[in-house]
Design a protein that fits this description.
Elements lengths: L1 E7 L2 E10 L2 E9 L7 E7 L8 E9 L2 E8 L13 E7 L7 E7 L4 E7 L4 E7 L3 E9 L4 E4 L3 E2 L6
Antiparallel strand pairs: 1-2, 2-3, 3-4, 5-6, 6-7, 7-8, 9-10, 10-11, 11-12, 11-13
């Protein structure tokens, strides 16, 4: 899976799951020419523990802060990917050079997270947790401080 966002101008950042030795991690690559060429591969997230996975990443730019959602089984150590996965996010305030501020958003057995920006401070993280769920998040202050409100079940109507 891959997600792409604009960092600024023609500068793009793509995130994707990468498998090495049977373990999935989240990596990124960048383009400075609107996607014509790509390079500068970097690690975004390596799950904690041993033999744990992280995958299904998506990325958005919220007011200059990059936000990556992903799922990981690092909290359960079940080692039967995707069983035991939870939905988390991580942020970068410097265009993807470094990442931090890991936050658990969807509890164990939350899968296939996705993101949508609402404005310069607010965004939604959606995931499956026995049905479609949406979590509204807000950046506050100058620091990347995320306030989490209760997740809500979402009824999705396709017409």
């Amino acid at each position: 899976m891959i997600g792409v966002t604009s960092v600024s101008g023609p500068h793009l950042l793509a995130v994707f799951e990468s498998e090495q030795g049977g373990i999935f991690t989240v990596d990124s690559i960048t383009s400075r020419d609107d996607g014509i060429t790509w390079g500068d591969r970097r690690r975004v997230y390596t799950p904690t523990g041993s033999n744990n996975n992280a995958g299904a990443p998506q990325v958005i730019n919220v007011g200059g802060t990059l936000v990556v959602s992903f799922m990981t089984d690092e909290d359960t150590q079940q080692h039967h990917w995707i069983d035991g996965a939870s939905a988390k996010l991580i942020t970068s305030g410097n265009g993807g050079r470094t990442w931090g501020n890991k936050i658990l958003v969807g509890p164990v057995q939350s899968n296939w997270p996705g993101l949508v920006d609402l404005n310069e401070r607010r965004f939604l993280m959606m995931f499956d947790h026995g049905g479609a769920m949406a979590q509204g998040l807000t950046f506050s202050g100058l620091e990347v401080d995320v306030t989490i409100t209760d997740a809500a079940s979402v009824d999705i109507v396709v017409s």
